[in-house]
Every structure is written in C-alpha cells, then in structure tokens.
Amino acid sequence: MTEENERLQEEIRHLPRSPGVYLFRDSSGRTIYVGKALDLKQRVRSYFQKPPFPSARLKALVSNIHSVSCIVTDSEGEAFILESNLIKEHAPRYNVQFKDDKNYPYLRLTAEETFPRLEVARRVDERRSRYFGPYSNAGSVRETLRLIKKLFPLRSCRQPLAPEGSGSRPCLNFQIGRCLAPCSGEISPEEYGRIVEQVSLFLEGRQTFLLQRIRDEMEDAAENLEYEKASRLRDQYFSLQKLMERQKVVSSDLEDRDAAALVPGSSGNMVVGVFRVRDGKLLGSEHFIPRETAGAGEGEIMKEFLRHYYEKACFVPGEVLLSHEPVEKELLEDWLGQKRGRKVRLKVPKRGEKKALLELSRKNALLSARQEKERRLQEENALEDLAALLGLPSVPRRIEGYDISHFGGAETVGSMVVFEDGAPRRELYRRFRVRGAGAADDYAALKEVLERRFRRKDLPLPPLILIDGGRGQLSAALSALQQCEAGRNRVYALALAKEREHLFLPGQGSPLVLPGFHPVLKLLQRVRDEAHRFALSHSRQRSTKSSFSSFLENTPGIGPKRRKVLLNHFESLENLKGASLEEIQTVSGMDARSAQNLFQRLHAGGENNK
Predict the structure, then answer these.
(1) Which residues pair with 97 in a beta bridge?
(2) Whether residue 519 sits in one domain with residue 402
(3) How far apart are alpha carbons 610 and 607 in whole angstroms?
(4) Which pLDDT tens digit goes with each residue over 481-505?
C-alpha cells in the first residue's frame, strides 16, 4: 500500500458513522465530488473496495481522490439539502450538474412593493418576491410576459408613487390601457392587489378558477354600476377564455401533474423534457440539458434533475410522471412533499393516459435533442472552418472575446467572455475595472485588460482571442500579448469591426471580408456581440451605482453602513425612487425617521433629487 493510500485509509478510519455529506478533493485541493450518506464511514469506505469498478466514471473519480472531508447532519433529509447546496457551490467535476440557476430565467413578482411589478429575473434573491419558473429559455419567458401585460394591467414603470387621488399625470401605459396608473393614485392598493392575485393564479396554471373569479368580479362591478371596471373585466374574461380554448386537454381527470422524460442527446449528453399540466390542460414544455453525465446512470440523472428543477419551482404538483425511476425515490418524495405541504408521488407509468402523456413529453424531448445536435454540428463545422481560414494548428475549442466600455470617459471597464466548442460559458466570464488608462483611451484600456488577464496563472490559455474593434485595437492586443510570456506566440489574436464587419488579422494589410451568411463570421459575431453586451452592462451598472452612492452620501442620516445596505437592496437610484416608504423602512438598519427623511428627499423634486 502506498503512502498516499495509507493516509486516505487513516482519514476514512476517523470518519463518523453518522448521516452527513462527504467531499472528495484532488491533489490541488479542488472539490471533485460531493455525496451524501446515512453512514458516512461505510459509504466512503465502499469507494475504496477492490476493483473491478462498475463504471469508468467511478474508476476515474477514485483515481483522482487525494483527500476526504465530511460535514455531519442530524438526518439524511438535511444531508440531501446540504449536498445540493455544496454541488452548486463547488461545481464538482464528477457530479451530474445542470446549468447554474442564475442562467435560467424566472418571472419575478415584486411582492415587497405596495404595487408589485412582474419582471424577468436571472437569479433568486432574498427579497420577499414570488418567483415563477425556472424556464429553459428567455424567449418563452418574454412571450409569457407579453401575454400577461395584455391580460392584466400591472405597472411596469418605476415612477415614484403618488398618494391616491393626487391627480398627478400618469405615464403612457395608462393611456393605452396597459396600466391602471398607481403612480398617480388612480387605483387603491387593495384593488391592485386583486389584479396581482389574478396574475399569480394565471402563472400557477389556475386558469379555470381564475376565469370564474373574473366573471364574478365583472358581475359585481356591473351591479354596482362600475361600468368602466366591468368593461375591463369583460375584455379580460374573453381574452383568457380564448387562450384556454387553444390549450390542449391531455388528462381526463383534470389534475395537476408534471411529466419528465429523459432521452439521449448529442455527444453522450442527455436531455430532460418536462410537460406542465394544470387542471388537465397542457400549459407548456421545457427542456434541460445536464452537464458531466458521461458514465452516470439514468436514475442518478433523473434524481439530480428533480432536485434542481423543484428546488426553486413556484409550484410542486401532487404527481410527477417519470420515464426512469430516480435513485433515492422515497427521499425525493419526502422532500417534495415538504415543499408542497402535501404528499407528492413520483411514478413511472406503464400504460394508459399517463403513459401516453409521458410519451408525448419524450417525443418533444427527442425533438429538442435533435435540434441541439444539429446546433452543435453547425458550431463544430464553423470552428473547423475558422481553424482552416486562419491556418491554426488545431480547432480553437476555447475562444475569448474582449471589449472596452465607458460613459464619457468615466467608469471604464473591460469584459472577457468565453466560448467553448462554440457555446458561451457564462460562469467563466470576467470583468475588469480599468485603472491606469486615460479617459476614453480604448487602446491603453484594452492593453491593460489583456496584460492583467494573461498574467493570471489560474486561467487556461485560449488558442484564439477576438477583439471588438479594428486595426488599432488589434495592434494594442498584439502589443499586450508580446509583453506577457504566457501569451507570446501561443495565442492568436484577431479583431472584428462592427461598421462593415471587417475582420483584421495579424500581419495583413487589408481586412478580410466574409459574406454575411458565412458560418465563421456568424460565430465571430456572436463572440464579439457578447463581449460588447457584457462590457456595456457592467459599465452601465457602475455608472448607475456611482450616481446612487453619491446621492446617498449627500443624504443626512445615511452613514456608510446604511449606504451599503441600501445599495445592495435597491441596486439603483431608480429602484429606490420607485419604492414605497414602507419598503424603505423594512431595509435592515433603517429606522422610521431616517426612512422618512430619505423618502422626502427622493420625492422633493428640484436639485435635491439630482
């Protein structure tokens, strides 16, 4: 037995025989696997039994284990939740993982506000908001948002809220019937609250119940001679009824259930397709693609999907139909039941209507998998064409894109985006605050950003970097690479200018002009545009936060601690102006007097507000 094996066996001997979570780390200290167990000592010891290993995945995992640590919990249920949190935190190489939650869009109902708004959110924060989702793509979220704005006149602006009956002028949304103007006091919080409840029912899939409620309210309004309100409710009723007529009935028992089917995707990946059925009607479908699934069993993948999907889901149905039975099914049912407040059944149907529903979900998942495979094939062909066009020795699997952004020479920032195998890896993006370059000196700023990036030893070298700009930006990039030992003669740089989509290559006097439909140009445009978007959003964010911070610094009663809390809570001066006095008072560290002073200064007008 080697010295390292002896050390590992000694660590295992000291593990407790208790429920908890164990973490395996490699020689560099990186967490490569997180698991849970009812008996930590027995479970960890099982990894080091004599071969043969049941899978190549397990063999590779065990060969890379350098150290073991554990966290003891009171129960297996607690360990289950802790395991999920640690997988998200460490993103271990050998755990089945889905895309991080912040990349999946949600719909957020800002319940902490007196007059809530509905907006798209990329992460679930600690506010008292209600979240609906997750959705697998932003397009379906925006389409849902557009539909809701047509059906329900929630406010979408952040104008300061005036007292009811103040007579202040409402915004354009009121004039076109898309808002009931709470900003000018045209509607009471109680009446607005009823509309918010309607939106919640709609997003939960309670459309039959919602339709009856709108009908009752419409009849009450007509009896009370509130004809304008009755007319609005009538239009809502018929629009919702028309929408429901287009929804397919897939279950005769009119129950709520989800159907999740696991199918093979491209390059050994798997795809999970989900159908959401409420009141027996099909409301929508999503598909999710896990990572790190090579060698993982269907039951393990299904378990991780259920844990990932329902952890932040706004609604858990009483029954979930599955194509494959997940490992630890009973533990999952208990966990889902706690989230729902009632019993939840996980079922693999064998025949009948439920089997037909699951088959429909499977067909849609296969279609999504086929589309994903075609997309990957197009990206692979584009990468091969790019390598041939530039004369690279191999296909550039990793491409980094860079851009510089500022507002009038102030708050200059740089962005680094990463594409691997033609797809963005947002968790690898980096932002740089430019310190040394002069105002509006994009060349010096780009040079500084690249020098700082290529001095870092912890990031892998990309075979190719793309600069947003023309010949001048490319020259600055080449100069920076020459001054960094890591990048010199090992990284190929090129630039893509927006105006005419000219491609500038090192040592070439004239730009390369590719046809607009060329796959290589399309790929490079995606990288360039993403770098530009990422830089611009960061620059705007810094500019917004700077003006917000300046306003708070000049507000009496707001010291450094309160300023920090307000900045983190509201994120922008516009958000703070749209907040009610009650919301400001609920912020940690704010007392009634300070909140009142801040609220009055926000809405005093004139120079104070600038």
Answers:
(1) 291
(2) yes
(3) 5
(4) 988 876 777 899 999 998 789 999 9
